[in-house]
Amino acid sequence: MPLVYQTFLLFALNVLDAVLTIYWVRNGFATEGNQLMATLLDIGDLPFLAVKIAIGAVTAVVLWRWRNLRLAKYGLAVALAVYISLMGVHFFTGLSAFGYVSNNFVSDFTSWSRGLLA
Predict the structure, then answer these.
(1) CA nearest 91: which of 1, 17, 22?
(2) How far, in Å, CA of 48 to CA of 42, rounded?
């Protein structure tokens, strides 16, 4: 996959993560694990979304600007792996929210994934 598509995918996953996080938290299905972002979410949806999108945009621009460096290519691959894993957490949260998976399973899965990503 060309680097431009990978960079766009990373930004798109970042935006999707932000929107899903707002939905899950506001409907009581999940909590925000990042304390800084949780504080922004307590302030409101717009500040949370603005900061989340800004962080994703800066990351995409930096990775695109230095796309010829090996470190940027590896960093992009690692960031994509993290965000794809995070989409798995969102997927299981959705399954739990709609009653397809028990809350205990989601709790265990979330604990495992946090330990892996931390």
Answers:
(1) 17
(2) 8
